[in-house]
Structure formats: C-alpha cells, structure tokens
Amino acid sequence: MEKRLIYVDNAATTPISKEVLDAMMPWLTEGYGNASSIYSKGREAGWALKNAREKIAAAFGASPSEIYFTSCGSESDNWAIKGAAAAMAKRGKKHIITSAFEHHAVLHSCEALEKQGFEVTYVPVHENGVVRVEDIEAAIRPDTGLVTIMYANNEIGTIQPIKEIGALCRERKIWFHTDAVQAVGHVPINVEEQNIDMLSLSGHKIHAQKGVGMLYIRRGISLPNLIDGGGQERGKRAGTENVAAIVGLAKAVEIATANIEERAAKTRILRDRLIDNILKIERTRLNGDREKRLPGNVNISIEGIEGESLLLSLDMYGICASSGSACTSGSLDPSHVLLAIGLKHEVAHGSLRISLSDENTEEDVDKILEVLPEIVSRLRSMSPLWEKIQKGDETGVPMMK
Ligand code: PLP
Fold first, then answer.
1. pLDDT at position 385
2. Within 10 Å of residue 346's Cβ, how many Cβ atoms?
3. Which of 66, 126, 216, 369 has most Cβ atoms within 10 angstroms of its Cβ?
4. pLDDT tens track for 330-361
5. Does the beta carbon of 73 sit less than 6 angstroms from any atom of ligand 1?
6. What SS3 state is found at 156?
7. Which atom of ligand 1 is nearest to the CA of 13?
8. Whether residue 327 lies in the annotated active site
9. How many whole angstroms separate alpha carbon 69 and alpha carbon 80?
10. Tens digit of pLDDT for each residue in 3-59?
C-alpha cells in the first residue's frame, strides 16, 4: 500500500517550520550565554529575548512589559486563572465564569479552585458550539472577578464572540482571560481592540517547538508569582530563560500572524471541500457552526462507528487525524465538547477531527476523500451498532440528546 504521510492533526501539534528552526539554531549552539549574564555572550542572549518579546507584543497590540514567557499553553491557563483567583479573593471576589467546553487546562483549574471555596458558573455553549454574551451577562454576580472563555475550541473549531465578551467584562470591571491556543495564526488578534486582559498562547500549535508558551497580562493586573526564584520575567516566573525556544516562538508568531486573511482563504477552500464531501456519507453531521469556525477545522460525527477504529484505519493509509482532542484521546470517555453541544454519548464517541495547516494540499484532500467512504462502509459492515441504527433502533437516532 502506497503510504505518503498526510498530516491533518494540526490542532494536536504542528511540525517545527524551517524558518523557526533556523532562527533557533544559533541559540542552541554558539549562543548559549545566560541572558542575565553581564558579558557580551550573555548580553547577546538578553537582546535576543528582548527582541522576541517586542515582536510578540507587536503582533497582538500589546506592550513588551505585558508579555510573560511560560512553558506551554496549559501553564499559561493555570497561571491566569489560579493567579487571578488569588488576586481577586483579596478584593472579596470569589466567583468565576467559564464555559462547559473549555480545554481541560481551564476546566481542571476551575475545578481545583472550586475545591478551595471559589464558585464557578459553566455557561452553556449551545448546539452551534458558540457561547452567548447574554448567558455570560446573566451569570455575572457582584462577586464575579474573572471570566475565562476560549477564543476558538480545540475540537470543533468554533470561534467565540471575544470582543463582545471583553467589552461586557470591561464595563463590569471584571477581568477577562481567553485561551487563544487554537486561534493564534488563524484569526487576527489584538488585545486592545478586543478588550482582552489576559491571553494564553502555545508554541507547538503554530510551528514552534513544544515546551514554550506565553501569557499576556494587561498592565495593572497583578498576579501572584508563578515561580519564585531569580528575577526572570520581571520576577514573576523565575528560571533561566529558554532563549532558543523563545526566539523560535517569536519567529513562529511573526509568520503565523502575517497574511492571515490570505492564508485562511486558501485553507477554507480545502476545509469546505472536505466538509461538503464527507457530509455526503449517510448519517453524518458537522459539529459546530459552519461559519464561525477556524479555517482549518473539520469535525464530523459519523454514526455507527467508533472514532478509534476510524483513526487506526486512516493511519493505514498514512493519514494522521484525530477523534476529539489529543489530550483526551486514549480515554474511553466521550468528548466533553461534543456532549456540551448536545450530542448523545454514542455519537460523541464517533467523531472525526481533521485540522488543516497551510502545508496541506488539494492532493491531501483528494486522498482523504478517496479512502474515507470505503473505510466508513467497511467499519459499518462490522458494527452491531450500525445494524441497530439501520433497523431504526433508537440507539443512535437522533444524534442530538
Ligand atoms: N488550550 C487549548 C485550547 C489547547 O488546544 C491546548 C492543547 O491542545 C492547550 C490549551 C494546552 O496547550 P499545551 O499543549 O501547550 O499545554
């Protein structure tokens, strides 16, 4: 069997791009100085850091002093949410608003805070996978100190009304954090224009390396230190900086935020071809709003098959896709995101997520569309669930709760 690798799991992670690697190399080799050292080898590393911070700040309309480097998106989310909770508690506020389909870095942070006595409202996301500003407004209480809503969902790619939520929070003097890990590079982001107080980003989703992230914290918001130690990151997150990873992150951000519209338009054509053609397979359903979605996200439930069997079959053709998110695959639980938009348990097990990048081509789409219908009919022919569905048994019908 011919096996050309078709990587369409870019929401799980992305390969490091050549430009990013080239930017990193000098700092992995001769540029090994400690950025805090006083001699020129150290100062050079310090300048590289300063330059990276300035580039990233400029890409999002922030100032360099509002950019904090972290080790990943999860760390940024944890710091923003737990840090904000500790700070707001000092002002007598103990209520947080989030949504039911956030990434686990957010949900589990909120759950940990609930155990400490904070109260959390999980607003619904509705059938189209979009949070409504009215629901957030209705959930606000006098003691609400933080709203945290993801910019774009990692499984179904739906884009949230960030600017409007930010405006509401600003008006009510509530801090607003957004997990933008999946959005960066796909939609234009400006923290000023969109009323964002804190924003999380992760390098490995935008062709930088794993293990580097960023938290934007608006000036005037003082979070407790994440790591006590030396004076790095203005004393807030100690630890000798990973200069190469940070320089790579800045390069990745620079590339990802340039020509967004042009790149997105190209990706959208591939996405829409995939969606339109996969939906021709009987008993399939697109998850998440068709319009308010990331340019590269396809998430389709296919009744009568298990997501895992589908992925293994695609892998035999060299196609790397996913079912649910990479962080929860391996778990037998249905996706909390698909349950949150109202899918039945049985259906939430059988979804296919394809997440495209700029590097995907028409040929990749052709191959997926060539093999997928065959795989689905083979898996369905062996599925007792499919047999029941065809007999009109209620088990898989309708898809929604
Ligand atoms: N937030 C979202 C929306 C994500 O998709 C992910 C990763 O999948 C994360 C946070 C966590 O990022 P990291 O893998 O850098 O910890």
1. 86
2. 19
3. 216
4. 556 789 999 999 998 877 877 999 999 999 99
5. yes
6. coil
7. 8
8. yes
9. 13
10. 789 999 999 999 999 999 999 999 999 999 999 999 999 999 999 999 999 999 999
